[in-house]
Hints:
The structure holds two protein chains of two kinds.
Chain A: H1 39-48, H2 50-65, H3 74-94, H4 103-127, H5 132-135, H6 144-170, H7 182-206, H8 209-224, H9 239-245, H10 247-261, H11 267-292, H12 295-298
Helix pairs in contact in A: 2-6, 3-4, 4-6, 4-7, 4-8, 4-10, 7-10, 7-11, 9-10, 9-11, 10-11
Chain B: E1 10-20, H1 28-39, E2 47-58, E3 63-67, H2 74-82, E4 89-94, E5 98-101, H3 114-124, H4 129-143, H5 158-170, E6 176-180, H6 188-203, E7 207-211, H7 215-221, E8 224-229, E9 232-238, H8 239-255, E10 265-273, E11 280-281, E12 286-293, E13 297-307, E14 315-324, E15 328-334, E16 342-352, E17 360-373
Parallel strand pairs in B: 3-7, 3-8, 5-6, 6-7, 11-17
Antiparallel strand pairs in B: 1-2, 1-4, 8-9, 10-12, 12-15, 13-14, 13-16, 16-17
Helix pairs in contact in B: 3-4, 3-5, 4-5
Amino acid sequence: MGGQRAQVIDDREDRHPPGGVAIPDGPPPELVFKRRLRPVQVAHELWAARELVRALAERDLRARYKQAVLGFAWAVLTPLALCAIFTLVFHRAVKIETGAVPYTLFAYVGLIVWQFFSNTMNQGALSLANNLSLLNKVYCPREVFPLATMLVATVDMAIGVGVLGLMFLVFWTAPAATFLWALPLLLIQFAFTYGIALILSVAVVYLRDVRHLLPIITQMGVFATPVAYPLAKIPHRLQEIYVGVNPLGAVIEGYRKALLYGEAPDGRMTLIAAASSVVFLVGGYLFFKKLETGIADVA
Amino acid sequence: MSRDYPPGTIRTQQVWKRFRADQQRMLLRDRVEQAARRLRGDRGEDWRWALRDINLHIEPGESVGLIGSNGSGKSTLLKMLTRVMYPYAGIIDVRGRIGALIEIRAGIHPDLTGRENIYLFGALLGLKRREVAGRFDDIVEFARLGGAIDRQVKFYSSGMQMRLGFAVAAYLEPHVLLVDEVLAVGDAVFQQRCLDRMREVAEQGTTIVFVSHDLPAVQSICRRGVWLEQGTVRVDAGIKDALAGYRDSIEAQSEASARVGEPLALLKYEVRAGSGEETLHTDEPVTVELTLAGDYRGDATLHLGVSEGTSSPIFQISHEIRLTGGDHRVACVIPRLPLPRGRYTLWTGVYSIGKTDGGTLMSWHSAGQFDVFGPMLDTPPRAVVLAAPVFVPHQWEE
């Protein structure tokens, strides 16, 4: 069947197909490939890959704790250890004022958010680079790899939030009634974190240098973000710009107000953070999709 | 343009792909230099075409072998059909579910068990969890894992790891199956199982594109052959014609290698029909006559072989000779030539006996080609690979 309408091209010298039409020096310009993103198609593809996201996250979680005796306790021990250090340094030595709220609770809320961000950023940035040989063979929407690392970080965060519940018991306080404000803040947190992970993951594939930037960003970020101190420590006239660049500042501040102080988050700051995180997410996604087409070429 | 093709159709229209040729070293210094060049308006980029103007139309159910030497663009084309790689220009349209029969050891996580890895692969290849569960027993059976399935993969032998990665891909049920060099995987038994699986899939009406350097295997599966050379389609024809052309070109290249500075040289050779006819015929007498030239004196072994499109000969015969310096003529008579119709290559080499046992006097090389006329070989069942063409005189009785 196959060979019937086939044509034999045998012209050792000049390699022209039959009929004498020469192969041109280059393709017709109107046929040059351009990446077109159709939002509906992209969303559909991502939805179809939801099982893959789950399977990848499951792989990481299972593998991470397979030979670790303490297992999932490690998801809690890291923020708790940092929390203890912060309490000693910032509360006892620097004397950060937190009002009626125990400093340990105050710092722990910030650390949960920061830990989530730094886990997603560090693991997500390497999620493509570590799977390059796979990306060279199997097709799937590439954004699932950073997404899966964010899912892993979300599981860790959920455990951290469980521990926060225990801490409320220890300090004999209850979360404030305004805690529902945490939900929109969570969306901002996810959008910003995923946007950063998308940008870094594809950047690492092209520029290995970015890998070496990660520890620096992590080290500086924990102090540049109001984790150990309140947002108010940042000069008032700079706060809006600051939140625009680092929406996590407003997110952490908002969580504290909603969960610990029983106040609604600052509307203006939250809106700036929301707008900024949407820019990071959409910009990061477009950046990712633009560079994604060349991954197999440089891998 | 937007005609509706049935699932299993593959179309490429004027597909071009290029790679950077200058991407060897990218230190900061190079980048600074590059940036400086760019400021001067010189892009300074060196591109090399990997594929040029590829136009293919493959119907649902066809089985196509992609052949060609290293660097001819086979794998690049296959990667673009898998959608892993994007073309520089042109249209690629693959209808229906695409399955790649590839060895995905890359995704194996050593700390997970075989069972956990199977589900992970399934997800990577686009299978739903329950689809994997439904085929789980087949997959384990195919990979011959048995009781090891709940053991961590790091305790598997490397063969078991390969088979595991491969088995999941084998049980996809795609409209289009893309196969890249799978036969390097596993032992002979496993290779045959892979070929059998491909035959089954082909019989179910799945389109197959098979890339391999194992030409007999390609011939055993595919009905159509596309021979790529330097990024363009050289031949698109029935598999036999495509392979014949490709084999000829390989042999034409191997002939070119000249040996200098060896003690012996092949002055001339002749392959002639024993009957005195012009042409050689299957199952009839043939005489091979060689004339060696060189100063070497002493005993030596002369080897003579015949190959078809590969470097490994179909058969090899040898003979002890005593060289006395000067030209040496030797003839070999084969009373019944066991080769079916085709074009073959004659190989020869001479090695010393005695003090310097096995020393090379004239290294093993192809001397030239000859054509044989006679019957074609009978076609074996699909997925059965003939190691080499041999004509066996026979009679059937019923």
